[in-house]
Specification:
Elements: E1 11-14, E2 20-23, H1 31-36, E3 44-47, H2 53-69, E4 74-78, H3 90-99, E5 108-113, E6 121-126
Parallel strand pairs: 3-4
Antiparallel strand pairs: 1-2, 2-5, 4-6, 5-6
């Protein structure tokens, strides 16, 4: 990655069981509980499960660009739990790094593993457009 392109910075919170939440500077940690429950409701769903890692990475980038262009505030990324993978939850483990990448990384305010999808999905909350 070129030096002039900076990744978004997050405080990562490991909730155990492979569930990782992330918050950008200035985000109130208490709001994570609501995000984990789907508040605000997602404007879109991005379903990655069943895709190989490289396919999922490309699809996520495309789908996040489209969601941001359409003015989405929150998306639900369905990545699965990785129970059928011989090496574990590859997509779930890769997602935090992917969410920090440009061009969408600076727009991500927080992400949280969903409580209601048993660890198989992550809510992503974007900063409001100016």
């Amino acid at each position: 990655m070129p030096d002039d392109v900076e990744r978004a910075r997050f405080v990562l919170i490991d909730r155990g069981g492979g569930r990782i939440d992330g918050i950008a500077s200035g985000f109130d940690r208490r709001r994570l509980r609501s995000l984990r429950r789907g508040d605000p409701a997602p404007d879109r769903e991005i379903d990655l499960h069943g895709l190989r890692r490289d396919e999922a990475h490309a699809a996520l980038g495309t789908d996040l660009r489209e969601a941001l262009a359409a003015g989405a505030r929150c998306v639900l990324v369905i990545h699965g739990r990785g129970t059928r993978s011989a090496v574990g939850p590859v997509l779930r483990a890769s997602l935090p790094a992917w969410l920090m990448e440009p061009p969408h990384g600076p727009r991500v305010l927080a992400f949280a593993a969903s409580d209601d999808h048993a660890g198989g999905a992550t809510y992503v909350l974007f900063r409001r457009s100016r």
